[in-house]
Amino acid sequence: MRQAKYSGMMTYIINSLRNNFQFRSFMKHKTNTYLEIWVEARTRLQKQMDILVSEDLSKKLGDAPNSIGFLMRHIADVELLFGKNVFGSTEIKVIAKTVIDKKDSGEWTDLPALLIYLQDADEALRKIISQQTEEDWDKQISTQEFGTKTLSEAFARILSHTAYHAGQMAIIQKYGHA
Questions:
Q1: With 90 as the cut, is the pLDDT of residue 20 above it?
Q2: All structural domains of the chain
């Protein structure tokens, strides 16, 4: 009887320590976790980029204002702006034409150039995410677009922005017309 109690108690203590260690381990590695989340969240976009052909870039859905080419450029523009303005990168240089123009001019038809620009944006964000300290994720960021948030909360904005437009691209690619 005594041995069973001891065994049960030890199992409880070991499990508690293991759970506590895993929690501390997660907290210790926020930056790695956020980098993994970024990579996974961008997979929808990457899958779209892998199957696109040049003829897809001018496709729109009905009377919708944005083509696939515009959305590709817009995603990269906003990712680079985010790296520059929210993460504070001094290395990132961007002229966010889609944000400045606010409409699709029809000029985004060079697939290789768009793929390179998107890859550059992804690499820039991966780099700046990986440079964050654990404390950085809790610091307050203020922007006109979304007010004051922690860097972690602000990070969710770029994740959802990229995924949202990648979903739009998938629908336009499937059902849209040039």
A1: no
A2: 29-175 (1.20.120.450)
